[in-house]
Amino acid sequence: MELSVFNIKGEDTGKKVVLDDSIFAIEPNDHAIYLDVKLYMANQRQGTHKSKERSELSGSTRKLIRQKGGGGARRGDINSPLLNGGARVFGPRPRSYSFKLNKKLKALARRSALSYKARNNEIIVVEDFSFETPKTKAFKAISTALKVGEKKVLYVLPEMDTNVRLSARNLQNTDLILANLLNTYAVLASKNLVLTESSVAVVNELFKA
């Protein structure tokens, strides 16, 4: 698959880049995408939730009523989960929500997400660019020229440029990611994918089947 390369003014430079068909033109696997996104979101959870159980709650351990002869069940201390203000039964405990996915399945999910973007013509390739100083207005002008400024857009860079990062960090609906860290969730969470010319080679090398 070939795509035209645009400059930061949104003009066609006449150059072409080749997107590897084994990455950008496969039959997407929706279940692989689902599992990879589920894993990503699970890894974002802190898992630090905790409620006090009966042995951890402060309160008198005195028996509240006669234990026998009343005709009803025996009643324990004031921390009983059956009483108002008592402890919680089987409350949440700190835990990890992560689970294991095979590397091949993760790779399939990434290729499937990229193939969806390519199929829907939501991938744009732009010449490598940088700024001498951080300039949010200049970065916003690039998105406007590429006609991606109104919806969420993900810029894929070969390596992190401090001035570019600082220029984009205050822009709404604009995210940056390194090509080697590209993941299924980030691709699908953005409407458009803007690849710099150098990042195409990185993606083609890292994610090929």
What order do the helices and strands come in, and which of them pair?
Elements: E1 2-6, E2 12-18, H1 21-24, H2 30-44, H3 103-119, E3 123-126, H4 136-145, E4 153-157, H5 162-168, E5 174-178, H6 184-189, E6 192-196, H7 197-206
Parallel strand pairs: 1-3, 3-6, 4-5, 4-6
Antiparallel strand pairs: 1-2
Explain what you see.
The protein has 209 residues and is an alpha/beta fold. It has two domains: 2-46 and 100-206, Ribosomal protein L4/L1 (Ribosomal Protein L4, Chain: A), CATH 3.40.1370.10; 53-91, no CATH class. Helices cover 33% and strands 15% of the residues. The protein is built from seven helices and six strands, in the order ββαααβαβαβαβα. The chain has helices at residues 21-24, 30-44, 103-119, 136-145, 162-168, 184-189, 197-206; strands at residues 2-6, 12-18, 123-126, 153-157, 174-178, 192-196. It has a six-stranded mixed sheet with strand order 2-1-3-6-4-5. Strand 4, helix 5 and strand 5 (174-178) form a beta-alpha-beta unit. Helix 2 (30-44) crosses helix 3. It is elongated. The model has no long low-confidence stretch (mean pLDDT 91).
